[in-house]
Structures are given as C-alpha cells and as structure tokens.
Records
---
Amino acid sequence: MKVAVLAGDGIGPEIVAQALKVLRTLARDGLRIELEEAPFGGAGYDAHGDPLPETTLKLARQADAVLCGAVGGPKYDTLPRAQRPEQGILRIRKELGLFANLRPAVLYPELVGASTLKPEVVSGLDLMIIRELTGDIYFGEPRGRRKNASGAREGFDTMHYSEPEIRRIAEIGFRTAAKRNKKLCSVDKENVLETSRLWREVVSEVGKDYPQVEVSHMYVDNAAMQLVRNPRQFDVIVTGNLFGDILSDEASMLTGSIGMLPSASLDARAKGLYEPIHGSAPDIAGKNLANPLATILSSAMMLRYTFNQDEWAYRIEAAVKNVLARSYRTADIYEAGTRKVGTNEMGDAVVAEL
Ligand code: NAD
C-alpha cells in the first residue's frame, strides 16, 4: 500500500508528523505501508513555483492513497490565483477524479460539552455525510453574466446531474451504509427541481441492489432542520454538491471541534485523498498547539476506505477514543479538569495507546 504524504503549510507538517508516527507504529506491528512525502500547496510553490508540482502529482497518481495536511497562509495570499496553495487542492481533486467526499461527524462522549447543542440531543452522534464533488450547479453550463431584456444585469448558473454521476455517488452511499448502520438518507429538493427528480429516481433504482440498506429521501430544507433537531436519526446522508457543501459544514459544527474531523475524497475505484477538514491555521502554526486528531483519524479512514483494512482503522479510532477518555486534550478542546497537551504529546499518547 503506497501513500503519497503531502504535509502542506502552516500546521500541516506538525499534524501530519503525528499521523505518520501512528502509521509507522502500525507498520512495526505488521501493517504493510509505504509512505513517501512531497511538497504541496505553499510548500510546493516555494520548492517548484507551483502549488501542485509535476513530481508531486506524479507521486499522487502512482500512490494508492494521498494523505494531506492543509495548505495556505498569509505569505501566499498575494500570489496570482493559479499559484495560490488552495488551487493545489482543487487541481489534485480534479486530476485524480475524486468525486465523492465523505465527512463523518462523530461526537465523542468526553467532548459533549464542546457542542452548541444540548447533550441529550447530540451525545452518541455518529453520522456520515457523502457529498458529490464534481458536478451540480458549481460546474454546470451555461453559466455567466448577461443583461436581460430590460437591460438589468443578471447572473445565471445551471444545475445539472447525469444518470451516471448520480449512480456512482449513490453506489458509494449504499456501500458505506452497508458497512455502518445500514440506513441511507438521500437529500434533494424533489418538490421543486427537475435535477432532484432524476436524483431521487436513480438513487431508488440503485437501492434495489442493496436490500440490506434502508433508504429514505428528505428535502434539503427539512434535512437542515433535522440535523439540529434530532441529528442522531441519521446514519449516512448522500447528497449533491451544493446541498452537501452546506449540510456537511452544518453537521461538522454539531461536534463543536474543528480539530477532530477527518475527511475522505474518493474516485470510482476507492483511491482517495484523506485530509482533516480544517485549514492550515497560521495563527497557531509551529507552536505545538494544533490538534492532530483530525489528521490521525483521516489516516484511519484511509485504511478503511481505500485499503479495506477495517481492523487497523478500528485500532486507530479506539486509541483516539481511549486517549480522550484518559483526559488528554489539546488547547482547542481543553476543559478545566483535563490534561492539556501539545501536538507532539497528543501524537505520542495515541502511539502509546496503540
Ligand atoms: P482554519 O481551519 O485554518 O482555522 C480556523 C480556526 O480554527 C483558527 O483559529 C485555527 O487556529 C483553528 N484550527 C484549525 N485547525 C485546528 C487544529 N487542528 N487544532 C486546533 N485549532 C485549529 O481556517 P482559516 O483560518 O479560515 O484558514 C487558514 C488558511 O487555511 C487559509 O490560507 C485557507 O485558505 C486555508 N485553508 C485550507 C484548507 C485545506 O487545506 N483543505 C481548508 C480550509 C482553509
């Protein structure tokens, strides 16, 4: 199993170093994994004048999975658009054909106080949002600006999904639900949008191949409401790019802590790019303050979704749970009465647990 490791900028190198410690610990226990690092984002620009250098892209293509830290920082904010670190992320997703974004939102019992919702509403939360990443109104044509008949300026975009695009993301939704609690909720706006009518039809057709998964359909406005009213009713949610963009951010905030949340972006053969959902946090970079758990949990997702190594993934997740139960906290999740540790110490604690 070959992994391209792209640490990136800001806190990226610090948090990725902790995930590498964890993976190397498992390698000593028999996990067969090869890790190769390459510059990416601002670091790619510094080394080769390009946020996604040719050599980095080549490595990412050859690898079975890509593990990323985060990119960006004030130093790069004045660069022309094409050289900005964030363009590196957009380009690598496109080059690797990553069309499915998986974002779990898990609330650990020890962190229930970090959520803005009442403990009785969120405790035990464990849901997965699957968002289509490469289609929908973000990419649909025609799009643009024009003057209408009365001379007023107008902007327009096109919402668009084809059957194969819906089918492949639905497949990932059903397969993921089959591995979890076997409930899939497909979110659309079928009462208003033609695109959603096709979406619902195709999701239902794909569902016939997964009789073990209970499928339901929900309008996006209701889903936004249900996520704060009773989020535990969900196991897996599958939805399009626009609705998923909004719902996945809403869901992540249910857990209250950005430093805890991993993500995966997959292609049709489950090759994936794994990264924490947060950015490069320049305000705390280099200070041993960043929470590395989102990145460590991203590496667990990599073992589960690309390498089909559920056992190893479970070991990492259990170690993270135990470390929290033993009161280790980085500054972002610290509460009185717990043990405040730095980035490195948190990584070491997970390794010790393993
Ligand atoms: P951010 O996620 O980097 O930071 C937001 C806040 O959360 C900051 O206060 C930060 O200190 C805190 N934070 C983030 N991750 C943390 C962690 N692991 N542990 C503890 N605290 C953490 O978002 P931002 O400040 O809007 O963006 C900073 C830079 O990151 C920008 O250049 C932005 O473009 C980039 N960015 C990159 C990605 C990515 O690489 N995929 C995603 C989002 C933002």
---
Amino acid sequence: MQPHFPAARLRRLRASDTLRDLVQETTVTLNDLIYPIFVEEELDDYAPVESMPGIRRIPERKLDGAIKEIARAGIRSVMLFGVSHHKDDTGSDTLRSDGLMARMIKRTKDAAPELLTISDTCFCEYTSHGHCGVIHNDGVHNDHTIENLGQQAVVAAKAGVDMIAPSAMMDGQVAAIRSALDRGGFPDVPIMAYSSKFASAFYGPFRAAAGCDLKGDRKAYQMNPLNAREALRESLLDEAEGADILMVKPALPYLDVLSQIRQRSLLPLAAYQVSGEYAMIKFAAAAGAIDEHRVVRETLGAMKRAGADLILTYFAMDFARQG
Ligand code: PBG
C-alpha cells in the first residue's frame, strides 16, 4: 500500500529541472527517429508540398546532396518514397533494377553508406489508379499482389536497401516477402511491417506529397479506424509470418493500439506520425495557437510512453537541427 497525503507529496519530485529530469520515465533521441522523404524523378528543383509546410519533394538529380545534408544533420535512418513519372496498371517500375525505387536506394547508399535506408514496399506511388496492388474485377487482388511485393523486395535488396517496410496491407504479405528475400539470397534483410495500418483520413497530405491520385478509397484492405482487437490480430499474424518490427500507423490517434500491442509482443514497435498529424501541428503553430517545439516533443514522447521504440516522423529534420 502506498502512503497517502500528507506523507505522500508527489510535488517533492517536481521541484527543480534536475529532479524532474532525474525521474523522467521516457526520452526521445535521434536514435529513435526515421525521416520519411519524397524523391521525384524528372524534376529540376525542390518542390514545396503545400499541405506539409517545411517539406519539399527532392529532385532525384539532387538526391546525393540532400542525403549528405540529412546525414550531416545527425539523422540515422530514412524511409524513401518515390514520386513516379512512369506509372502503369501494376506499378511495374518498382520491379525494374533501373526503376526509380532501385535508383533512389542506390544513390542514397552511395551518398551516405552509414545512413540506414528503408524502402516503403508498396505499389500505390507507381500505379496509374493509385491502389496498392494489381486490380482484378474492381478490387485489389491479394495473392497476385503479394507475389509482386516479394519481387519488389528482392529488387530493393539487390539495390542495397537496409530494411523493407511493406505497407500494402495485403494478407500474407510479410510471409511472401520473407520467403522471396530468403530465396533471393537476402536472409539478413529485416522487415518492418506496417502491421496495424488504418484506412485513415490523416494520410491526405501524403497523397498530395507523393503524387498518388487515388480513385476511391482503401477500405477494402486497410483497417477500420474503429477496430483495436483486429489490430492485435494483424500484428500477431505479421509477427508469426516473420516480421522483425511491428508498426502502428497513424500514431497519436492510436496510442491505445500501440500500448495493447506492446503488452502482447516482444518485437520492437514503431509508430508512424503521418502527414496529417504533421500538418495539424504545423498549421496550428503557424496560426499562433500552439508552441510547435513543445508540442512536437510532447507527441513524440507520448508515442514512446505508449510503447513505441522507434518513430517515423516528418519532424525528424527539425528535431535534428534543434536538439
Ligand atoms: C502507402 C503509404 C501511405 C503512407 C505511407 N505509405 C499512403 C496510404 O496508405 O494511402 C502515408 C504516410 C503519411 O500520411 O504520412 N505506400
């Protein structure tokens, strides 16, 4: 039994910065952060993303310089998203060793070999219809798509990627990718599974940033935002299929899901603070309603407190610069 007032006075440990820092339970450092970036082919100059203040599409031809700057700032991991000018029905550009995805990986590893390079393994940025796989009679065909995802992962691995992050939300995708990587001679390339990925309205700014014109929605493959038990099933299935890291996406509106997965899995757990979460903070701060610096640290800290070990965030660059 713990004593209560007046013996217990919790304010004793809140009296100074030193005491507060001493008993602080959670910390966020650059070691925990992954910076997602957008790389566009056939683009001459940096292109600002209107809905994500501070974020710009990087022209492929300037990728070397951009990567060196990111590494110099102290960022240790990046997630690559391609903005394609070669879209088709199946996203076949990602299956080519000279396609945008493979080129981005090679250039990133050449520019900063020590920077951990993660590839988003999906098709939506490379398909003309904007869906995450192959369409058969109106819907995305699960089993055909996971075969293609396996091929895409092998192309990424051959280009030198350090980690694969499947985000298509197809059933069996982790197992299909693991077996393709193993057969292809890449048993040591880890998989960070977007295991609990919700059909969220918070992805709006990303679709503009990545140039995916989605017709319709993704409700037939991404999860219903109102389901938490199902998120546990998704996560435990991905673990059983061989995922090395699990992920919850978006992050802040899903802290309950993060914390429940934390209690049921021993795998490292990632949270993805998505484009809409980023935009809300940026626009509210620009309007003078909140203190951006403090709010960013509070949200990242909340994700770690809820159980995240690592966080994907567009604030990584600001964080690196400001400490
Ligand atoms: C799909 C993908 C998406 C995001 C990351 N990977 C978009 C989607 O599922 O519609 C969203 C990220 C964000 O909003 O920041 N490849």
